[in-house]
Amino acid sequence: MPAFLHDIEDILRFLPHRYPFLLVDRVLALEKAASISALKNVTYNEEFFQGHFPQIRIMPGVLIIESLAQAGGILLYHSLPDPAEKIVLFGKIDGAKFRRPVVPGDQILLEVKLLKSRARFYHFYGKATVDGDLAVEGFMLASLLDRGELNVR
């Protein structure tokens, strides 16, 4: 049995994101409507390192938050009865704290918990750690829309 639940090929079916904005590489554990643990491998080849910062390469904190949000999206995908008919929109960040820099070679453990849901709104707590050290944490809000409600092609 593999040491992970979903690989990148599975994730491509769950999330609409693609290169260079797909920021989850593997799902380690998932409990429907409760929590997810996933990984983001940070490599020297990430496009954002060209400008953030060329001399001291640090992953932008907002992209770590986005990684957590994408993990939350995977959790919702597995928690909804009709996920193909929905799209998850990131709505809000509260209390985000950035505790340590993330640099090339780091592997980020993304842990997201669903705190509550009401109607089409979902509240999460997420934390990102590297080697057991807290890098980023915060509260997030996502909303669900029916794909038909969007004028997107």
Q: What features would you describe in this structure?
A:
This protein has helices at residues 8-14, 61-79, and strands at residues 26-31, 35-41, 86-98, 107-118, 121-130, 133-146. A six-stranded antiparallel β-sheet has the order 1-2-4-5-6-3, with helices on one face. The relative contact order is 0.20. The protein is built from two helices and six strands, in the order αββαββββ. Helices cover 17% and strands 41% of the residues. A hairpin with a 2-residue loop joins strand 4 (107-118) and strand 5 (121-130). The longest helix is centred in the middle third of the chain and has 19 residues, at 61-79. The protein has one domain (8-149): Thiol Ester Dehydrase, Chain A (Roll), CATH 3.10.129.10. The chain has 153 residues and is of the alpha+beta class. The chain starts with 7 loop residues before the first helix and ends in a 7-residue tail after the last strand. The model has no long low-confidence stretch (mean pLDDT 94).
